What we know:
It contains 16 helices and no strands. By secondary structure, it is an all-alpha fold. α5 (74-82) crosses α16 (260-294). The two termini are 51 Å apart.
Amino acid sequence: MSTATIATAKVPRRARSPWAALRRLPWWGAVLLLALLGLLWIYPFGWMVSASLKSSTEVFSGGVGLWPEVFVWENYARAWDDAGFGRYMLNTVIVTLATVVIVVVRCALCGYVLGRYRFPGSRIIVGILVATLFVPTGYTIIPIVKLSLELGVLNSLTGMILALGGAANVSFILIYAGYFRQLPKELEEAAIMDGAGFFRVFWTIMLPLSMPVTATVALLTFLATWNAFFLPLVFSFSRPELRTLSVGMQAFVGENATDWSGMAAAGVISIVPIVALFLFLQRYFVEGIAGAVKS
């Protein structure tokens, strides 16, 4: 093939990434575009905060505007006192914190055993755990209610905590197992030579070293438990005083009308602790996710 032929031959164009246009923008253009996308993403949250400060008629008559004509702070008082969200907040905090402790300790122990020990049937156990990921949550509600009834903990916060904390949480177990597997064995060997047993090695060495993973598991469990609706609803059917925040939203729905402004105020009250916890643990959360992906 001659040189002229090579020069005139068509060079196939490389497939362009959908982000190629974004990378060619100047830095301020990319920042402006991402800022606009960010504002669009947080608009629903801003609308909820705005609706919590509006009157019931202004919630939908005010269009897409976020600034209330008159700030109605009574919506928060109505949600906290009249709808009983003070009591629901206390129930949610108790149930969430107890569930987080149970899930973290249980998943860390399971992950430690699966990640650090080799024993017959360990692969089968891992396979069974993975298979439970495909079981829908709703199918387990009847056995949970039956077992809680037999134990005498149905319609109680204790039963609600055991039901929420007793889930399989397979992904958390595998995250812990992958993290513990990559730690050097010299740590355990040195502790065993000093006379430490199984639980002492776990509590004093392994669990403190897994702080990023523990923060990730704690945060994800906190979010799931705080927003749980189905199980808390079942366990508070006959005792409304046991409702959590997510179940308590029903208090604003009447037979003929819905208190949207009061519901928005209750939503803001419910979401503030989650945002505060995420801001406090976001560094550990990112480190834990990054470590789990590497492992």
